[in-house]
Fold Endonuclease/Exonuclease/phosphatase family protein.
Amino acid sequence: MKIATFNIQNLFYRNRELLQKNRSKNAADWIAELDMLLRKYPKGRGDSNRINDLSCLLGFDKMEDMPYAILKNKAGELCFTKQGFRNTAKASFLTDWEGWVKVANGPLHEKAVFSKAYVIAETDPDVLILQEVEDRASLMEFNTEFLPLLKISPYQEVMAFETNDPRGMGMGLMLKNGYRLNGVKNHLYDLDADGLALFNMDCQEYEIGTPDGDTIWVLSNQFSLDDVQRKKQAEKVAKIYNRMRSEGKMVLVCGTLNDVSYSHALSPLIRETDLKDISRHGRFKTDTDQGRDGSYFRLGAYRLGVNIKQKDYLLLPPYWFEKVQKAGMNRKGTWPDRKPNWALYPSIGGKHHAASEHPLVWGEIDL
């Protein structure tokens, strides 16, 4: 079985908030702090004041930047709701309506779409786990229209599942060569100790049938950017994994965990279970950095000469880890903002041509 996990960062269009240029380190910290404070209950007076300060720092107080109206599909009609008003104007065959709305999503460059296809086609896994997929229609079009252009067979089973994030950041699963989906379970409604949603995205369980009639399980994840919440999510996924292992199931964990392997937040999953990181396997191969960085090992990097901060994981139980035949990472579609540099696809001339900010991580396992 060749399996891969890839945070594809949408296929054809992406929320404009996510398309903005990378925020500064301070802004990223402000966002994480604001997210934590908004979830806190009860809030003290100091918390409310800090929320106001953070909202100002992040520009949320600029009302002129807010959308003028919201356009929704309701009962087959386009409904236009003005801000601050309850009246609704409908655009239908009976009424003429002219107006404008602020579109939340922006299209990705055509070369970026092909870059995503190049990354997948070069590995051509039997089981492909995806994060940040906008919808199933886009995934189906990508599968039937783009992948065949690169001379690989399209996937027979293509699924996309929504998450708790409203910005088109769903999860996807693509199967072929005799692998099939037998069942799926989400954890959208799991709550933390404060009674709030535990997963800002989701943890999804996939039950997959193999060509030989066996069954494997995959836990696909995308963790929070907030350290405290991320640790809660890691604890929950570790609990799910241990339960499934006690039931005799062969299960792996993958996805965007948004932290380095030695972090305290990921310790419940990486250090307190028997899961093993495939990037630590002796057969894990990938292109090394160009120049002097090829002999350098940056803190938090995947390994010597692969100096990008690790966020994406393929974690295997010990038995599967011993059965790995080949493994690697494809980052040819990932634009290097700063040093180090590495080999890219020739079509990528800038960040807007890149496939994703995340590499594809894959492994070939002798089941």
In short: The chain has a mean pLDDT of 86. Residues 2-14+107-365 form a domain with the Deoxyribonuclease I; Chain A fold (CATH 3.60.10.10). The chain is about 25% helix and 30% strand.
